[in-house]
Design goal:
It contains five helices and no strands. Helix 3 packs parallel to helix 4. The protein has 145 residues and is mostly helical.
Length: 145
């Protein structure tokens, strides 16, 4: 069912080459309270959490990983794409059990598998924009979206 999210990797087509060119100092520049390194790891871990733990009820794919944030980010999308390819039409409207979050956040729409994937991809786009802000606050160019 990849056709549903045909353009899901467009953010990555810009972001990954950008990240591959960053120096170690840029990855960890801290003019903002989160570094680019932290944001990329957060994006990977969040995708892992929502797709595998919440959506499928499975174990984390990244827990205990000694991979750097970019490697985690690349790995989890490969695994998420495999899940996306394997889902059947009947799976898309299956409700997922979203836990109670300490800050009171609740899904704004009915939490189906279809919603879950939209949530993961919009979360990624949000943080990709944040990376541009972090870069500029630290005095270097951000990705060209």
């Amino acid at each position: 069912m990849l056709f549903i999210y045909t353009y899901r990797n467009d953010v990555r087509k810009v972001l990954i080459p950008y990240l591959q060119e960053l120096s170690p100092q840029q990855w960890d520049a801290d003019a903002y309270h989160n570094t680019i390194s932290w944001v990329i790891e957060h994006m990977a871990q969040t995708e892992d959490y929502w797709v595998f733990q919440i959506g499928l009820g499975e174990e984390s794919r990244l827990s205990g990983s000694d991979r750097n944030p970019l490697e985690q980010y690349l790995q989890i999308r490969k695994e998420t794409d495999q899940v996306l390819k394997s889902l059947q039409v009947k799976d898309w409207d299956r409700l997922v059990d979203v836990p109670d979050f300490s800050d009171g956040w609740k899904p704004p729409s009915e939490p189906t598998m279809r919603w879950l994937f939209h949530h993961v991809y919009s979360h990624e786009a949000y943080h990709a924009g944040q990376i541009g802000v972090i870069a500029r606050l630290n005095g270097f160019n951000g990705p060209l979206f």
